[in-house]
Specification:
The chain is built from 28 helices and 15 strands. 23% of the residues are buried. It is of the alpha+beta class.
Length: 736
Amino acid sequence: MRRNWFHRLLLSYLPVLIMIVCLFVFIGIVQLNDLSRKEAMKSSQVYVQNIQNSIDMSLRSIEIMMLETITRNVKLTTFAGMESDSSFIIELSQLLQSMTTSNAWIDSVYIYRSGDGTIVSDKTILKIDQFGDSAYIESNLTNVQKVQWSTPRIFRTIQNGNPEERVISISSGVPIHSKGIALLVVNIKMSAIQEFLEKYGNSEVNKIAVTDNEGHKLFGAAGLESKAGDTTLVSGYTGWTYSNSFKTEGLGNIYFYMTSGWFVIGFLGMLIGIGWVIYITRQNYKPIETIMSRIQKYNQVHKHNPIQGLSGDELSYIDYTLSNMIEVSEEYETQSKVNEKYRQLMLFKELVEGSNPIDRAEWEAELRQMGIASFGSASVSIGEIDKYIDFLSQHSRRDQGLFKYILKKVVEETAEAKGLRIWQEWLTNHRLCIIFFEEQQQPAESLMLEVSEQARKWMQDNLNLTVTFGLGNTVPEANAIVQSYEAAARALDYKSALGSNRVIGHWEIELLSHDDLYVYLQYVRTIAQAFRVGNDGWEEQLRLLFEGLRRLMLPREEISGILSYMNYYFYREMMELPPDYQELWNREFRTPWDENMDALETLEELEFFYSKTLTSCARKIEAIRESKGNHGVVQKVKAYIEGNFSNPDLSLSSLSDQFHMNASSLSTLFKEDFGEKFVVYVCQVRMEHAKELLRGTNLTIQEISERVGYVHQMSFIRAFKKMIGTTPGDYRKVHQ
C-alpha cells in the first residue's frame, strides 16, 4: 500500500513529463532561433549606423576645417582681393598643402579667383584655361546655397591630362557666402573611403553596399535584391544610402519551423499529453481531493505552526511539503515589506521631483505612518558629501555605507531633539534629501538651519567627513515640495563660489548681485597671450580673474563654462607655437586638467590648480627657449619693442638695423620663439598699453593713439577694433 501511490503517480505523470519537456525543448530552440534573428537584425542596424556615422563625421570634420580656414585665415580673403605677390602665393600654397596633410582622406585643395582666372593649389599655380577641373568650378562658383558634397568624379590637374584620382568634392565661396569672387575646393579620395569600407564594412556575416544620392555605386554590389532582415539607412548629411544584408541565408524563418515534420510531431505530442493529463486527473480525482481538504484544514487550524517531522506514508509527506510552501509564503511577506520600502522611495522621488501628482489618500497614509496628524507646511534640505571622489577612493564600500547610515541617524536624532518630523532618503550616491514637516503653516527654516548646521558640525568633529547643506524655502502644499527641493539644489550649486563644509540657505542666493561678467572675461585673452609670449603679467591677471569670479558668486555650471572658455583660448595660443611647445602644454596642463577637473569643487582649489600647473609649464617653456642659441637676441628684441612701442617708426627694418641682423632672419626667429609675427606682437603690446590708458586716464582717443605709436587716430581705432573686438570709446564705457 505504501508504494502503490508512488507507482500510480510515477506511471501517470512520467510520460507526460517526458513529452512536455521534449515539447518545451523544441519550442525553446525555435524561440532561440527567432531571438537570434532579431538580435542579428538589431546588430546589423547598429553596424550600418556606425559605418554611416564614421564616414559622416570624417566628411563633416573636413567641411568644418575648410570653413574655419576660410573664416580665420586672412590669406584666402587676401588672395580673393587680387593679391598676387610671389611670396604670398608660396605662403598660400603652403597653407593649402597643410590642409591637404591634415587629413589622410584629402587628395588635393585648390582656390580659384574669378578676377584673373588664377588657380592656386597645394602643388602648383595655373590659369583656368589650363586647369583640368574647370567644369566643376564653373558649376559651383556662383552657387551660394548650402555647402554640399559632389557626386564621385574624375579629377585632373592639367587640361586633357591623365586622370589622377576619383574624388568627391566640397566647395565654398571666399569669403563665405560670397558669390562669384573666389572658390575654395577640397577633393576627397574615393579610394580612401573605399579602403575604409573594405576594412570596416564587411564581416563574416554582413556585406554592405553604399550608393550616392543619384544611385551610383560607391562600394559593394549595387542593385542587390532586398530580403527580410536587410538594413537600409540614408545619411541626412551626404544623402548616401547604406545597405546591409546577411551572408547567411534563412535566419529564423518561422514558416520553415511551422512546416517542419518535427514541429507537427511536437504539436501532436502536446495534444496527446493534454488528453493524457485530463484522463489521469479524472482517475486520481479522489486522492487529490483528500490533499486539498487537508490543506484547507491546515489553513483553518495551523495558521502559524508548520507540521514537525514526517509520518510513515506519502500523503503525510505531501502535507509536510505544503507546510514548507507556507514557510516560503512567509518569506514572500518579508520580501513584500522590502517592496514597500521601495514604494516609499519612489513616492519620495515623485514628491521632490514633481514627476507625478501626489495621490491624496496615499499621501495621508504615509503621513500617519510618520505620526503626523495633518500637513501644514514643508521645507527641503539637501546634504552633499564634499569631495565625493576622494571619499570613494579613501573608504571601502562597507565604510561608505556606514558613514551614510551615520549621517542619516545624526540628522534624525537632531531633528527629534528639536521636535521636528522628517522624511529623508538618499536620492543619489552623494546627496541626502531631507523633508521637514510642520503640522501648522509656519516657516521651519530656522529650525532646519539649526539641524543642518549641528549635523554638519557633528560629522566634521567626529568622523572627519565634511558635508555641505543647501536649504530650500517653506511651501504650504505637498505638490509644491518640488519648489523647495529645486531651491535647495540651486543653493547647493553655489558651493563652488561660497565654499564647502557649510550650510547655504536659499535666501543667501536670492540676495546675491552679480557684477558685469564681460569685464572679467576680458582677462582671458590677455592671460593666454601673455603666457604664450612669456610675459610675467599673466600671473597677476589670473589672480584678478579668480578674484572677480569670487565676487560674482556664480554657480558651478557657469564657472565651468568660463574656465572652458579660458582653456580654449590657451589652446588657440599654444597651437601658434612649434610642436615641442604644444607637446609640453598637453603633458603639463591638458592631461592633468582632464584627470582632476571633477575633483576640484571650489574656486580656491581651481585657482591653486591653475596657478601651480601654469607656472610649472611656463618655466619649462622658458627653459626650451633659453636652450636655443638665438634666444638672447630675441629677448633683447622683445625688450626693445616693449620699451619703444610708442615710436611710430618702429618696424622690422629699424630693428634689423638696430641689432645688425637680416630682417627676414629676425622675423623667422621671432615667429619660432613666440609663435607670432613681429607686426602682430607690436600691435598687441600697443593695444595692452592703450587699454590701460583707456581704463585709468581721461586722455582723448587722439592722445592715447599718439602715446602708443599711432600718428593717425583712425589707424589706431581700426587696429584696436580688429584686435579687441570693440572701439576704444565703447571699451572705455564698459571698463572705466
